[in-house]
UniProtKB/TrEMBL annotation:
GO MF term (any one): phenylacetyl-CoA 1,2-epoxidase activity
Species assigned in the record: Nocardioides oceani
A Pfam family assignment: PaaA_PaaC
Coiled-coil regions listed: none
Membrane-traversing stretches: none
Keyword annotations of the record: Oxidoreductase
InterPro entries: Aromatic_CoA_ox/epox, Ferritin-like, Ferritin-like_SF, PaaA, PaaA_PaaC
Protein name: 1,2-phenylacetyl-CoA epoxidase subunit A
E.C. no: 1.14.13.149
Length: 299
């Protein structure tokens, strides 16, 4: 594939390319809106007005990312209502990471630092993805994610320098979120059915394992700067490879969570369906308003 130009919505494209993009972009969009839940639960419990304002802005950004991504998926001819229907019926996925609970305020910091950090490593290459609308949506999303990542780091930095309890809370959050964050990159390359074709099409630029390694290499010195440890006894600098060696994530756990059997899958989906049903009157009112305006304005 010619890497210098992008594929645009009206260009001819193989059916499999279109299907793969819809799958990945929809999963990505769903992740953004389901991803509002674990942190949204902490808005009313944030420890200060400043923290509350920042967290509210972050969660709103995630709704915005969902909107850009649904819009990008719609350019491929799939209506947003169909994508949401597929999510609600369990036919489309969202990222495994959002099926873990946020037990303490430090978890909000760990999500910002590790989950947004992993998201950035995965998404920066998508800014050069072969499909124009997806690549362009990613540019703005990555800028916002990098702000999110820094706010998470700053929360943990503050806690790590606080009381013994605060420090322990920060360490516990990192201990619980480290491995699930590594799982965000997907199964190992040898068990990833989509990577080869997606790379040939220029949708993915790097494999799951390459990006996982890149993330570990970035996170290890950051953990040191925080004065926190990472829960991996195998972690060591590999002089020969010039990379951090790390242990193997529990990919059986990833498979369970992706199959809908993670700690919070049922709650997350039920909450989403309820929010959608509660919002039906807003969608109806907006559609009625748009129809009225269209009838009033000359064509
Ligand atoms: N969770 O063959 P592969 C965020 C599925 S960041 C769930 O390797 P692929 C920001 C995969 O879909 C999170 N499912 O697949 C935020 C496939 O399913 P199939 C979202 C997973 O697509 C931060 C099957 O397993 N980011 O939301 C996962 O080539 C904080 C086989 O896997 C994106 O979606 C998983 N972790 O590579 C928001 C990035 N891993 O074929 C709020 C875009 C794999 O049965 C707060 N997506 N699967 O349909 C991608 O880069 C890719 O889709 C991968 C998976 C790398 C996730």
């Amino acid at each position: 594939m010619d890497r210098s130009t992008t594929v645009e919505p009206r260009d001819p494209m193989p059916e499999g390319y279109r299907r793969t993009l819809v799958r990945q972009i929809a999963q990505h969009a769903h992740s953004e809106i389901i991803g509002m839940q674990p942190e949204g639960e902490w808005i009313s419990r944030a420890p200060s007005l400043r923290r509350k304002a920042i967290l509210m802005a972050k969660v709103q950004d995630e709704a915005g990312h969902g909107l850009y991504l649904y819009a990008a998926a719609e350019t491929l001819g799939t209506p947003r209502a169909d994508l949401l229907e597929a999510l609600h019926a369990g036919r489309q996925k969202y990222s495994s990471i959002f099926n873990y609970p946020t037990l303490t305020w430090a978890d909000v910091g760990a999500i910002g630092w590790l989950v947004d950090g992993a998201a950035i490593v995965n998404q920066v290459p998508l800014c050069r993805c072969s499909y124009g609308p997806y690549a362009r949506a990613m540019v703005r999303i990555c800028k916002e994610e990098s702000f999110h990542q820094r706010q998470g780091f700053e929360i943990l930095h503050t806690l790590a320098r606080g009381t013994a309890e605060q420090r322990a809370m920060a360490q516990d959050a990192v201990d619980r979120f480290w491995w699930p964050s590594l799982m965000m990159f997907g199964p190992p390359d040898a068990d990833s059915p989509n990577t080869e074709q997606s790379m040939a099409w220029g949708i993915k630029r790097f494999t799951n394992d390459e990006l996982r390694q890149r993330f570990v290499d970035i996170a290890v010195p950051q953990a040191e700067a925080l004065g926190l440890t990472l829960p991996d006894p195998e972690l060591r600098w590999d002089e020969d490879r010039g990379h951090w060696h790390f242990g193997t994530p529990d990919f059986a756990e990833l498979a369970e969570v992706v199959a809908g059997r993670g700690p919070c899958n049922a709650d997350r989906l039920a909450h989403r369906v309820r929010a959608h049903e509660d919002g039906a009157w807003v969608r109806e009112a907006a559609a009625a308003h748009a129809a009225k305006r269209a009838a009033r304005e000359p064509a």
